[in-house]
Amino acid sequence: MRISVRINSAAAQAQLRRWGGEFRAKVQKAVERAITSEASELKEDVRSHVAGQMAVVKKSFLKGFTARVLAKDPKRLPALYVGSRIPWSGMHEKGGTIAGRMLIPLHGRVGRKRFKAQVAELMRGGNAYFIKNAKGHIVLMAENLKEHDRPLAGFKRRYRKAEGVKRLKRGADVPIAVLVPKVALKKRLDVERLVAGRIPRLSAAIEKQIRQVN
Question: How many other C-beta atoms lie within 10 A of the C-beta of residue 108?
């Protein structure tokens, strides 16, 4: 996801070209200072917004959201970049549908790599099979066998908690995941609105810094 707010009007760029080289460099530095002073707080606001709207398990997901200054091009005024290095995070900003057959873990969340490894281990051991339940859903199941306690541990724990079961009998069926043709994601974030709301404050900070240039 990328949201870029640029103080980059045609009039501002024309004025920048008219200014002398030394003064223009000072103006660019002033704009950079102003944006830098706001970027850090904006970054924290964005992360707080994401944490408040989503059940975040890994801190690395929040740290993926950032706000920084783009000021390498001497021919342009600095710009503010707000976004995330996690490509699919934009789906939560706009909403949308992910198509394709997917296995979705049941009864709680589990990391993608860990889930893939656990299912692969159960498949190799011959202890994973699909059934169609009463609602017509295709569900991946496994038997509660001693030799598969390690890959099944998390699935059993979450299943017992969800169903209110204290103990599972050996040989009992454990639902692991449901096979779906697509997943629809609702809009859950509004980072764009948050950033847009900070533009007046950012503009004031830039104006203040430019007025101090001599």
Answer: 12
Residues 119, 130: Cα–Cα separation, whole Å: 12
The residues, ordered by sequence, that sit 6+ positions from 15 with a Cβ below 8 Å of its Cβ are none
Instruction: Give the model's pLDDT for residue 13.
Output: 63
pTM value is 0.67
| Contact criterion met (CB below 8 Å) for 25 and 17 | no
Angle between helices 199-211 and 21-53 (to 10 degrees): 150
Torsion of the alpha carbons at 95, 97, 98 and 100, rounded to the nearest 10: 170
CA atoms of 121 and 102, how far apart (whole Å): 18
- Whole-number Å distance between alpha carbons of 68 and 48: 17
Q: Which residues contact 163 (CB under 8 A, 6 or more apart)?
A: none
